[in-house]
Amino acid sequence: MGGRSTTVNAYDDPSLPIELGASIFVSVNYNLVNAANELGLTVSSVSAKERRVEDGQDDLVLGVYDGNQMLFTYPEGKWWSLAKLIYRYGPLALWRTKKLTENIVGKFLTMYEPPLFPFPSLSGAVEATGLLPATGATGLQFLEANGIVGGFAEELIQASTRVNYGQNLGLIHGVETMVCMATDGAVSVEGGNWQIFHGMINSSNIDLKLQTPVTKISKSDDGEWTVAYKPDGAKEATKEIYDSVILAGPLQYANLAIEPELEKKPDMIPYATLHVTLFASPLRLDPVFFGLNPGQLVPRAILTTLNDSERTDPAIMRGEGKHAVGSAGFFSISTLRSAVRPLPDGGEGGKVEYIYKIFSPERYGDEKIKKVLGVKDGDEDAVAITWMYRHVWKAYPYEYPRVTFEESKLADGLWYTAGIESFISTMETSSLMGMNVAKLIVNEWVEEKKKEEEEEEAREATKLEESAAKPVGESVKEETPVVKADEL
Hints:
Layout: E1 7-9, E2 17-19, H1 30-38, E3 43-45, H2 46-50, E4 60-65, E5 70-75, H3 80-89, H4 91-109, H5 122-129, H6 132-135, H7 139-145, H8 151-165, H9 174-179, E6 187-189, H10 194-202, E7 214-219, E8 225-229, E9 238-242, E10 245-247, E11 257-259, E12 271-281, E13 301-304, H11 308-311, H12 314-317, E14 332-340, E15 352-360, H13 366-372, E16 387-397, E17 409-411, E18 414-416, H14 427-469
Parallel strand pairs: 4-13, 7-11, 10-18
Antiparallel strand pairs: 1-2, 3-6, 4-5, 7-8, 8-9, 12-15, 12-16, 13-14, 14-15, 17-18
Helix pairs in contact: 3-4
């Protein structure tokens, strides 16, 4: 439940959950914020979580690394933080980016309310918001058209698109680019964001079946859908009848047979392969590895961008996966927190260690991790890694520029939510499309009920007219209505 919003327990200790996938949401994510409040979940700001590194070296929040040198570091809560940004990038870049982000977010938020909501066509809704110029251009083109060029775009904004989507500005479209900059009020749920979706399901009073792959759905002549599913380990499939079916994940990965065949199938959209490496170590990140001086502070979050030569190479700027990452070799390395490693016998007094997360397009091997920690070749005595967890996601689609999107309704009674991923891929937008499809289904039911009532009223009115037209004293023969099977 919750898909990519998944936690892993460091050291297999339930008191140390670590986000493996979707890590944060922001203040304009109304569905997630409201759901967390309604469910009584504890929400903490990202800045509060970042202070969990308990060694006095926790004031350097962000660094941008290009594979050769640390281009920029950002200290949190210092008076010179903003001045440092302005000195490097100029005041116009910051101001224009802020205004452009607010403009894009404002247009997107109109999708939550009438007259746009609920939207039967995502393409139509995106056009109505005025966002097509942004989705139809690359992030680089969109930023340039709005006067945002140079270091701020190539360093900070591109570092954001890489950590969030593993894509450079030459590939990702303009709307998703600006989504990466809408970070005001970033928060997460204590214990894991998955609890939002777990709570939604638990409060819905549904019959939940996990580990139960659906293998086939078929539509009958009367419009009903037969859903065939086979619980893990079962020999025979079970079949159930439904009025409506919602496909809530990318159809291309569903391994699902649909009868009759859809007149138009959703596009096959390449999804990025993201390797997530979680590990714990008694060692801090090595400043020399990142081009800093020995003993210098290493930022808690290290994002990466391309160096000068890579930025002029279209094969890298527009590349995917390992062809996009550049000489840095990873998209981000974060120091998540410090923790006391449990002793084998469960006793107290373990050593303080640091828990890290790496995003990369390929497996980030142990030898590479040791280099990041400053362990020299041949140093067999160094204890570099004490706990590790690796996972590979099909994390998000490649957000190519486009001006049309998948329809929410694939056939009568068959609905699709994953089409919104090519527009914006976040927890919030997935919940928005779920809310949208739910409302569309309810509206259809209401319209169908209203139609039936109007037809019944029309029949009754016809009977009354016929009765009134009979001569006085003439008996009226009551007709037994014929009830068709599909009306039962």
